[in-house]
Design brief:
By secondary structure, this protein is an alpha/beta fold. It has eleven helices and eleven strands. The strands form two sheets. It has an eight-stranded mixed beta sheet with strand order 6-7-5-4-8-9-11-10, sandwiched between helices. A three-stranded antiparallel beta sheet has the order 1-2-3, with helices on one face. β4, α3 and β5 form a beta-alpha-beta unit. The site of S-adenosylmethionine (SAM) has 22 residues, from α3, β5 and α7.
């Protein structure tokens, strides 16, 4: 949406973007650089996993927005020889175009303006990032709709090793947080390729949704405003602190834990059927 984005300053002096239509800031805690570094890049051990990868390492960057998460990953990986593919998704160009116009104030895009301009224009760019060969694709799609048809694409996308899941909040953007979306995302992974996803929410509803989609789920690091975040994986070996039986007991008593089946935000306790499925999840048995 044209005119949707504004620059705002956080208490620590960092600048971030604010979406008028969603009424939310993109990196509201510590700002774009620190939040992207802590929550996405370090939490998913991107540098370590890229360095150990045999061949191309693939990041799915869900909610490209102003590209802070992707650019932070690029800055962190410059000294690692290897091949990186970033597959970014968004249903609008607007935040990326805004970021390019405000690169000087936002600072994190500086040095990558040519790459961002090529991504905006052509939706794909190949370049050398220090010692790293990078291919960056931008899929301008409605992510839930795209994901539901992924198996039928003529050219399926490369399967990810890590996923940055950075949509607006479930209350403001429920379409990105439903059980069918995460179930389709889990099905798009390769069981032979360990993959971890992180997101800023620690809500019981989100964690129950990820578990019921097939993921193993763990506690993620604190960042800025959040005392905990969430990490999910198709391989429990990627989780430092898996949710335990105490979490399950709290979820069973919570007044907001039932996954969203439709893109409508509802706070509801677990239904008896969902509670039974959660109890049977291999993580708790
Ligand atoms: C919190 S912002 C992402 C910030 C971004 N990761 C960054 O580092 O700057 C959420 C993004 O999700 C996008 N989004 C919202 N609904 C979407 C949908 N249905 N499909 C794809 N992207 C969507 C928004 O346009 C927005 O850019």
């Amino acid at each position: 949406m044209s005119g949707d984005y504004q620059l705002v300053q956080l208490a620590n002096g960092e600048k971030t973007m604010f979406s008028v239509s969603y009424g939310e800031k993109l990196h509201p805690g510590l700002g774009p650089r620190a939040e992207a570094e802590l929550l996405y890049v370090r939490q998913l051990a991107v540098c370590e996993r890229l360095a150990a990868a045999d061949g191309e390492f693939v990041i799915w960057d869900v909610g490209l927005g102003g590209a802070a998460n992707a650019l932070t990953a690029l800055r962190a990986t410059r000294e690692i020889p290897g091949q990186l593919r970033i597959i970014s998704f968004d249903n609008t160009h607007a935040p990326l175009a805004f970021t390019l116009r405000h690169a000087a104030e936002l600072r994190y895009p500086q040095g990558y303006e040519t790459v961002l301009a090529a991504l905006l224009d052509s939706h794909r760019v190949a370049f050398t990032n220090g010692k790293l060969q990078v291919q960056w694709e931008f899929h301008l799609v409605d992510f839930p709709a795209w994901l539901s048809g992924v198996k039928n694409l003529c050219q399926p996308p490369a399967i990810p090793h890590v996923i940055f899941y950075d949509a607006f909040s479930p209350a403001k953007n429920p379409a990105m947080w439903t059980l069918p979306v995460f179930a389709n995302l889990f099905r798009a992974l390769d069981p032979q390729r360990p993959c971890a996803l992180t997101t800023y929410s620690r809500s019981t509803l989100l964690r129950a949704t990820l578990l019921l989609s097939g993921f193993h789920v763990g506690v993620g690091h604190a960042t800025g405003l959040k005392e905990e975040t969430t990490v999910a994986a198709n391989d429990p070996g990627l989780l430092a602190e898996p949710l335990n039986a105490r979490w399950l007991e709290r979820a069973l008593r919570s007044d907001s834990a039932e996954p969203l089946n439709e893109p409508v935000y509802l706070r509801r306790p677990l239904s008896p059927a969902t509670a039974a499925k959660l109890r049977q999840h291999p993580q708790f048995s």
